[in-house]
Amino acid sequence: MRDRIPLRIYSSPPWREQRPTWQDAKPALIEAALKRATARPSGNWFVAGASRDVVKGKPCGRTIAGQEVVLWRGPGGVLMAGSGSCPHLGAPLCDGAVAEGKLICRWHGLALDGTRFGAWTPFPAHDDGVLVWVRLDRAGGEEPLDAPVLPERPPAGSIDAVATLIGRCDPEDVIANRLDPWHGAWFHPYSFANLHVLETPTDAEDRFLVEVTFRLAGRVGVPVIAAFTCPEPRTVVMHIVEGEGAGSVVETHATPIRDGRTAVVEATIAHSDRPGFAHARPAAGALRPVMRWAAARLWRDDLAYAERRYALRRTGRFPD
């Protein structure tokens, strides 16, 4: 019976009586993990949003690294992307229309099929089934890759939801937040209890391993062990490696909008080997808003952390 019921009754001290973690959360350790993450190649790929954001027959506009970008579905639903400014008179192409796979400017009817037209530039685009990506070589400045660097994900049949929030910070501030697991039970007591960092990054394995209980209601929670890694410079991934939902993933992507402005795009991909999970999949449409709400709740706090870090860095007050 215990194996069939994932919920546990847990005990934890009151918030003020938790064991302090500030001595464990060494700034040098967090900074070293951040430097290794930001040094990894991205191939100039940036997350633009959820796959569901780009629907057939309607353009979708984004600003990424100071560039206007427009995305749409071409023939057969293929993801297309390009400069968001019309080459004729600079109209915003995100306000245009899509017909027969072509993007049509609303000002004068110029139709773009995704190939170069005068000064208008198409961008490589990738749809991984959960997120859409755009490759911006001028903004990235790296050696281009044919596809984005993706983390390992659970098998087909999982339930995914994507939440997007905007913060006054840079991508590195978002990544640094995720590379500080020690703040979890202090900063988010409504969601986490009994958090223990089991492993910190080493030369052999560059990851954080964390034991934590996800709080549900009262003293009821779900204990898991999670690993945090960075596959590329603007992404931190949490894999549930033990406990309920093993194999589930939370991907946190930090996409620069412009200097001092960053989009946090978080994809939660839930998975379970339990037979009952198959019955939850038909209700995915109802579950996604709940999953997005849970992610947004955490990120309201975590963006305050990232924004504070950014403000301190900008004014030279960030602790050495």
TrEMBL record:
The keyword Iron applies. Signal peptide: none annotated. Keywords: 2Fe-2S, Iron, Iron-sulfur, Metal-binding, Oxidoreductase. Gene3D superfamilies: Rieske [2Fe-2S] iron-sulphur domain. This is (2Fe-2S) ferredoxin. It comes from Lentzea cavernae. It holds the Pfam family DUF5914. The keyword Lipid metabolism does not apply. Residues 45-134 form the Rieske domain.
